[in-house]
């Protein structure tokens, strides 16, 4: 658990979606708790891990106010609807998801803040991995979803992905945050937990500040990756905020 100012962040790994080395989801879920009020937000919950996550919420004496999504995931089904059913937490997406997702309680607009206790978390549209990708900014930290990874970035070859948009999102919006802002990514495939904006400006493989847009777009165009194996299951479920028809 790490904290800054009014809140703490607990990083939760996805141990259920590790299939083989070429098809690892390695998704990250974050539990952000306001220290004083014990109100909390869960970001990018994974359906298989909901029981574990809710046990932790209970142990820590937290009231879960919101289940927040950075985007419509292709590699796992979100736990947002199960969490809502169990706790009454409101399901929240960022700008750009309202035309695609049903079953959410609200869609934040650009710059809008989600308040829980004395903590305020701001939505920042960071399209490029998908067209509706949103990062969430706290004082001193940012949850970047699949826009910016530690030393890398999300793929841009489906769901309205655009290398041009991703470059602008990272370089002009995320890199405009203070250098000491902690970066919590949507995935990490090398067991790392966090980075900082300053580190990524210097060391990100494809998006460090010495790389121009044309070079980045070219690198992304040449990148060939297999489809996530759960994509055909995950996309329709996630377009309903993780609600699975029975
Ligand atoms: Fe993704």
Concise summary:
The chain is an alpha/beta fold. The protein has six helices and 15 strands.
List keywords for this structure.
single chain, about 250 residues, alpha/beta, Metallo-beta-lactamase, Chain A, six-stranded mixed β-sheet, 15 strands, about 20% helix, binds fe (ii) ion
Assign an overall shape. globular
Compute the number of helices.
6
Beta-strand residue percentage: 25-35%
Distance between the termini: 37 Å
Q: Can you count the beta strands?
A: 15
CATH topology: Metallo-beta-lactamase, Chain A
The molecules bound to the chains, other than polymers, are:
fe (ii) ion
Widest sheet, order of strands: 1-2-3-4-5-6-7
In quaternary terms, these chains amount to single chain
* Class computed from helices, strands and strand pairing: alpha/beta
CATH class: Alpha Beta
> What is the radius of gyration?
17 Å
Q: For this structure, what is the CATH homologous superfamily?
A: Ribonuclease Z/Hydroxyacylglutathione hydrolase-like
Main sheet attributes: strand count, strand direction, barrel closure: 7 strands, mixed
CATH architecture: 4-Layer Sandwich
Q: What is the mean pLDDT?
A: 94
- What series of H and E elements makes up the topology? EEEEHEHEEEEEEEEHEEHHH
The helicity comes to 10-25%
Task: Quickly count the domains.
Answer: 1
């Amino acid at each position: 658990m790490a904290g800054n100012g009014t809140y703490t962040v607990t990083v939760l790994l996805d141990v259920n979606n590790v299939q083989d080395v070429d098809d690892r989801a390695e998704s990250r879920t974050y539990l952000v708790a306001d220290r004083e009020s014990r109100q909390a937000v869960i970001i990018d919950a994974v359906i298989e891990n909901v029981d574990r996550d809710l046990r932790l919420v209970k142990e820590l004496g937290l009231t879960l106010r919101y289940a927040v999504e950075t985007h419509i995931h292709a590699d796992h089904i979100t736990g947002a609807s199960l969490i809502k059913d169990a706790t009454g937490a409101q399901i929240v997406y960022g700008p750009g998801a309202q035309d695609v997702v049903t079953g959410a309680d609200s869609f934040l607009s650009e710059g809008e803040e989600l308040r829980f206790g004395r903590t305020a978390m701001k939505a920042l549209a960071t399209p490029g991995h998908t067209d509706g990708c949103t990062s969430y900014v706290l004082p001193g930290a940012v949850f970047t979803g699949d826009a910016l990874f530690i030393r890398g970035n999300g793929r841009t070859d489906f769901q309205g992905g655009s290398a041009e948009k991703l470059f602008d999102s990272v370089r002009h919006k995320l890199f405009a945050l203070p250098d000491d802002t902690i970066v919590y990514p949507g995935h990490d495939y090398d067991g790392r937990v966090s980075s900082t904006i300053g580190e990524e400006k210097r060391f990100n493989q494809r998006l460090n500040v010495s790389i121009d847009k044309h070079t980045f777009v070219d690198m992304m165009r040449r990148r060939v990756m297999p489809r996530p194996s759960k994509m055909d299951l995950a996309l329709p479920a996630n377009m309903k905020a993780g609600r699975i028809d029975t």
